[in-house]
Amino acid sequence: MAKQIKQHATRADVAKEAGTSVAVVSYVVNNGPRPVAPATRERVLAAIKKTGYRPNNVARALASGTTKTYGLVVPNIANAFIASLAHELQQEALANDMAMLLGDAGDDRQRELQLINNLLSQQINGLIYISVDRHPYIDILQASGTPFVMLDRVDPALQVNVLRVDEREAARQVTSHLLSHGYQEVGIICGPLERLNSQDRLHGWREALAEYGVHERAEWVFSTPYTREGGYPISASTAILILIFYKPAVRRS
């Protein structure tokens, strides 16, 4: 005997159960555009619960012109900072009755392109984007007409909306702080040197060294991938280098 497929409840089913019209059910589900009497609203909500009706988001999107969904494309969700960022964005989306679709590129540029195309095909309302490398797919996003914001350092010539930390100034300030307390050998651990944010941090670090008349040394720069795995060996190497080759930092009197 063939298994029967359970039919989903429709707005007509809800209207029949509530003893009202389909239009009134729509007003309750969409919270407008016309007001509904409190007693009628309660009957409709009770009917929705009883019938198990769930709005068809695809149909709603076609009617309203919005999917109430946005995408987030990141280079690697294993990165603790990015994971924390994704969590906060998800919370904000839920608070505003929106859905967030996460795309994890896994540090793969081709996978990043695939994710962007998939999200755009789902008619998202906007995209928040951190690229795997310094060559984001800006042309594809601009051609799609979908609003987007970059959350990383990008070439200013691209003229796109960017929300980011001034990492150059941050690196300069933290290095200056250490130098102002008498430390003379201040190293820096940064990401891959081809990354723009790594270059920003190096520039800020060098500016502070120059300001205090300290000559940088090549062995003070430690470059490693932005991963948990990349952090362990570089931390161990740094500690060993300090113990073997350097005397404890001397403060000025």
UniProtKB/TrEMBL annotation:
Keyword Transcription: yes
Keywords attached to this entry: DNA-binding, Isomerase, Transcription, Transcription regulation
Transmembrane segments: none
SUPFAM superfamilies recorded: lambda repressor-like DNA-binding domains, Periplasmic binding protein-like I
Any one Gene Ontology molecular-function term assigned to this protein's record: transcription cis-regulatory region binding
Pfam family, one: LacI
HTH lacI-type domain residues: 9-64
InterPro entries found in the cross-reference section: HTH_LacI, Lambda_DNA-bd_dom_sf, Peripla_BP/Lac1_sug-bd_dom, Peripla_BP_I
This enzyme's EC code(s): 5.1.1.1
Name of the protein: LacI family transcriptional regulator
